[in-house]
Amino acid sequence: MSHPVIASPAFFIGKGNDDLISFGSGQPDLAPPPSAYKVLEHFKSFKYGLVQGEEPLREELAKEYPYAEAEDFVITNGASEAIDLALRAIAKDAPGSKVLLPRPYYYSYPHNVAFAWMIPVYTELEEGKLNFEHFKRDVEGCRAVLINSPSNPTGTVQEVDTLKKIEEYCEERGIYIISDEVYKDLIYVRENYLLHGKRVITINSFSKTYAMCGLRVGYLYSKDRDIIETAVEMKSHTSMNTSLVGQAMALAAMSERDSYVESHAKIWRERRDLMYKGMKALGLDLWEPEGAFYVLPKFKNPARAMHDLYYNHKIITYNGEWFGAPDRLRFSYALDVKKIEEGLRRVKDFLGKEYASY
Amino acid sequence: MSHPVIASPAFFIGKGNDDLISFGSGQPDLAPPPSAYKVLEHFKSFKYGLVQGEEPLREELAKEYPYAEAEDFVITNGASEAIDLALRAIAKDAPGSKVLLPRPYYYSYPHNVAFAWMIPVYTELEEGKLNFEHFKRDVEGCRAVLINSPSNPTGTVQEVDTLKKIEEYCEERGIYIISDEVYKDLIYVRENYLLHGKRVITINSFSKTYAMCGLRVGYLYSKDRDIIETAVEMKSHTSMNTSLVGQAMALAAMSERDSYVESHAKIWRERRDLMYKGMKALGLDLWEPEGAFYVLPKFKNPARAMHDLYYNHKIITYNGEWFGAPDRLRFSYALDVKKIEEGLRRVKDFLGKEYASY
Q1: Which of A208, A223, A287, B291 could form a disulfide with B187 if both were Cys (CB 3.0 to 4.6 A apart)?
Q2: What is the C-alpha separation between A104 and A101, in angstroms, rounded?
């Protein structure tokens, strides 16, 4: 066969038709809260806004975090820019520093670290969980660690006990914790545990909670004054204020927060159950997702499986290798139940055919 | 007096009342084209868009540049992100390289170069103009040069003859030219000359032409395939697609391009004439602006003058030192005629009082 090689998630962008089932990109298919669009009717701003972000939005966010104040937030172009700014701010006085990434990781992280002229190093998750003893060994000599719980791509949530030990250990040693909590409102097993401390930088966004991926509004939150000031200073030169219209939509969306999150929790849980049980029934080896909307089952020769699933069964999956999990495939289940069911039927078909001979 | 020291343009953000005349920030006071808001009525997108930017917008932009194609553009969070991405893409294989900045420069440039882990070096403008002989001497050993014509803060437009020589000289030596042309539609003396060549990266934005500063839509354009691919790859990790709602507004604004730009040209020329003649009449030493909306008159002790103008006369001006012009003050005349007239009266008052004793 002479199909093009699938080298990165970018391959799948723009590929979509009625017949394709995409377990690829991690974006909610559900629409944002109606309030977000309602605000557009009277939207008239056009001048520069505060680089740090509009004050009413930061004040509203501060209510979500204990002890937080509006000045502790920087509104960014999605969580991506928040991570980029956090890493660049940390690297400012210490280029070439090491940053610890639990593996499997979100595929952008090693790039983010490298683009900030720092060096990614790794600690291996065990069945998706952090091992504190290994963590202590692996964080040695690191300037920062990037934690993502609930995790993309593992779907796991870290134990509160482990997170508390990490907090204490890092604070004592002056190691920054970048805590990417973009899935904090999509947890099936417990409430979110907010990592906190003097050198913690929390990353979040409106993309997952409010299904606003394309509008690119995220933020970083920290009680570390130097990090906030450096991030604002950098952003004033590298992108200035985040789009005012996006910020207005985000603020409006927050007015529906509780009812929106609650009504969606049921939908996500139903999809999670369907996906997890369906895959187990097919005999696949995977963890039960505790948060976010991903499963990461084991496959023999995942690159070939991804290839065959796409070209022969019209299913998009992501190669685990992109996430530091070379023996697995990532499936996003941000899809309606009918599509998940059809997708599972196709996976079954694949398992009974090509895969049997791998 | 114990007034706070004014250390950077950030000092003035959020300071504004009816009684204050701001010659500070460089943002048009005129509203964007009505079409830009009209598109909001039916706006419903929320999913991730192409990291490179929406195709209809890039296709429309390609019509503005000879030989351009949609794939030569990357839509960014304003010109700021376009400059950041261009520099980071250049630095990727050559950290620590030198980048030449004509001085006076837009105040973000040295920061942008440093944030990309490169080193800013300078060539002095003469009365706001590039001297090609000095340019050749100063560009020695540089990986890139950043040209801004029409210029913020000088208000000058570079000679076409000089620009052509620079194009040829840099192309022969493989030096990147980043050409920041955000004021290309605000030129009083001639048509814009588009710098072009294999290693030219053109920066532009909707902020000045369409008065859309706060909506943060800009772009970079280059025929250098490697730069475009690297910029898109970086952006896919550092901010992803530019806000879809901003891009929709930008595309709508373009439908009114010619009539909007033409009707505004008259307004800008009237303001330019008023500002320049008014300042000459006050005996100030300055160049006649050829583009953009800034004048850069000489002052004795500009830091003190900026301070007194603000605290005693309620006028915001920017210290020339922030732009590498330590003997001058920058005045933006993006203000209506009445405010410019009142501002000039206050400057006259200042010149006759405190300033006389400097």
Answers
A1: B291
A2: 8
Taking only the tens place, the pLDDT of each residue in A86-95 is 999 999 999 9
- For CATH 3.90.1150.10, the residue range(s) in chain A are 9-26+258-357
**Would you give the DSSP letter of residue B140?**
T
Q: Which architecture characterizes domain B35-255 according to CATH?
A: 3-Layer(aba) Sandwich (3.40)
Q: Which two tokens stand for residue B12?
A: 């003035």
CA B125 to chain centre: 17
Q: Which is nearest to B347 in space by CA: B318, B319, B305?
A: B305
Q: Does the beta carbon of B24 lie under 8 angstroms from any beta carbon of chain A?
A: no
Chain A: residue whose CA lies nearest to B108 = A237
Domain span(s) for CATH 3.40.640.10 in chain A: 44-255
In chain B, what residues touch A233 (CB-CB under 8 Å)? 10
Residues of chain B with pLDDT under 70: 1, 16
Superfamily of structural domain A9-26+258-357 = Aspartate Aminotransferase, domain 1 (3.90.1150.10)
Is the predicted ipTM greater than 0.85, yes or no?
Answer: yes
Structure tokens belonging to residue A345: 């039927």
Per-residue pLDDT reduced to its tens digit, A49-91: 999 999 999 999 999 999 999 999 999 999 999 999 999 999 9
Residues 167 to 226 of A: which have CB under 8 A from any B CB? 211-217
Q: How far B338 CA lies from chain A's nearest CA (Å)?
A: 20
Output the CATH code of domain A44-255: 3.40.640.10
Give the closest of A46, A212, A215 to B212, CB-based. Answer: A46
